[in-house]
Amino acid sequence: MNWETKITKLLDIRYPIIQGGLAHLAYADLAAAVSNAGGLGQVTAMSLKNPELLKEELRKTKAMTKHPFAVNFAIGSHDRPFIPYVEAALEEGMSIATITGGNPKPVFDALEGTGVKIIVLVAAVRQAQKAEELGADAVIVVGQEGGGHLGRDDLGTMVLVPRVVDAVNIPVVASGGIGDGRGLMAALSLGAEGVEMGTRFIAVKECVGANDVYKQSLIDATERDTVVIKRSLGAPARALSNHWTDKILEMEKQQMGYEGLKDYISGYSNKKYIHEGNKDEGYAWAGQVAGLIQDIPTVSELFDKMIGEADQIRKKWQQ
Ligand SMILES: Cc1cc2nc3c(=O)[nH]c(=O)nc-3n(C[C@H](O)[C@H](O)[C@H](O)COP(=O)(O)O)c2cc1C
User: Fold this and answer.
1) How many angstroms does the Cα of residue 140 sit away from the middle of ligand 1?
2) Which of 18, 22, 273 to mutate to test the pocket of ligand 1 (most atoms within 8 A of CB)?
3) pTM score, two decimals?
4) What is 130-176 written as a DSSP string?
5) Which of 39, 100, 151, 288 lies in the 20 to 30 Å Cα band around 144?
6) Rounded to the nearest whole angstrom, what is the distance from the C-alpha of residue 201 to the centroid of ligand 1?
């Protein structure tokens, strides 16, 4: 079947499926596998220690795929200045950038006149309109079911996506809670031109940075096994529920603030779980869609299954 949408045309990809930024995980192997399967892979920029390492990762990705891929800039949650990373990516021929976690304007300024396509992650109608005003080529709308950092308003994908579709003229990508062909078709029904998936792309063979313990935890988790932490800091984010997140939530109840929480919510504690598989001494981001994950396929197997399911739904609708 023909999978052309405004997003596939804009990004020159076969299927309207984008892999989420995935801090500390989205590197060359995963990005290239997703782009080779017909979606849009992404390399996460700000998890890398310096811009030189980003350049290396982008060179590695280019060697592994001839298809387009994006560079993700999570500009809110790191102390490092992000513009040197944007410049490094430009030097390596970046063609698509996605931005999350802060005011995207400086990135727009840095990319002005370069022809790089810019997609902004948003979690509210106003943010989407702002991104459009700044000149974004598309927005990714993240609902509160999603893994990792979320909007502050607890808005679900089912309502937020059509609200944004009605409020902007640029293509909208739905994200948060999508993990199979049913989710893809639901998103398209809401007026989205494609989907972005984060959690689902962790439980795949090519997400080589994710420890097997993390992948197995995603399989074991039901839809009830995630919690939102960091709400007291104004930066809510969804993680797998464990002793560590219990402790964080308890400290948040006691209003311990950033200083009290910082060791618990640090990148170090994140990596302890996701890289080392130490699930008692760290935390791991994941969305409610963990409840739908039951296997660890290759990216290409995942695409075959998803597109097959979606094609079946389309056929059923045509009857
Ligand atoms: C482990 C993890 C790390 C994430 N890191 C980033 C990131 O660095 N940049 C970004 O734009 N989004 C990040 N996200 C959010 C995803 O891109 C995506 O919006 C979200 O996962 C969608 O919800 P889903 O998990 O239900 O698919 C992350 C999500 C997860 C699960």
Assistant:
1) 11
2) 22
3) 0.98
4) HHHHHT-SEEEEE-TTSSEE--SS---HHHHHHHHHHH-SS-EEEES
5) 39
6) 10
Q: What is the block-wise mean pLDDT of the chain (319 residues), using blocks of 10 residues?
A: 95 98 97 98 96 98 98 85 96 98 95 98 98 98 97 96 98 98 98 98 98 98 98 97 98 96 96 97 98 98 98 94
What single letter denotes the amino acid at residue 102? G
Report DSSP letters for 198-265, one per residue: SGGGTSSTT-TTS-HHHHHHHHH--TTSEEEE-GGGT--EEEE-SHHHHHHHHHHHTT-HHHHHTTTS
Task: Tell which atom from ligand 1 comes closest to the C-alpha of 238.
Answer: 31
Count of residues in the chain: 319
What's the 287 CA to ligand 1 centre distance in angstroms?
Answer: 8
Taking the C-alpha atoms of residue 177 and residue 256, their distance in angstroms, rounded to an integer, is 31
Q: Of 7, 41, 21, nearest to 206 (Cα)?
A: 41
* CA-proximal residue: ligand 1, atom 8 (nearest): 23
